[in-house]
Fold this sequence. Notes:
It is built from six helices and no strands.
Amino acid sequence: MNNEFMWNRFTSAFKVLAVERDYQSKRIALFYMTEDSLSENWVKLFGHKCDILARIMFIKMSKRKRCAKINFIQFHDALIDIVDEIKDRRNRCVFNLLEFNGDGDLDIMILM
């Protein structure tokens, strides 16, 4: 996959999920994501609302810090392997997003 294409997709997705701004800026460093912006804008990016998945994703990116502001680098680092051409890396990335408590197992109660 073309690196420039992938970079543009990541920046576009991040801007959609970021806190809405009064003005448009091309500088990705001026954008940030909060738990509320991620939850509110989830439907714009994915076409349906899923508060629990948005919350889990935020908690993972913020490293369990409340009221955190997620920058583009944190977003990129958490999701870069989703677009990897190697299936095992993509699967591991999705597993790591859903595996909430760090014990290596998916907790059905959290997923429900």
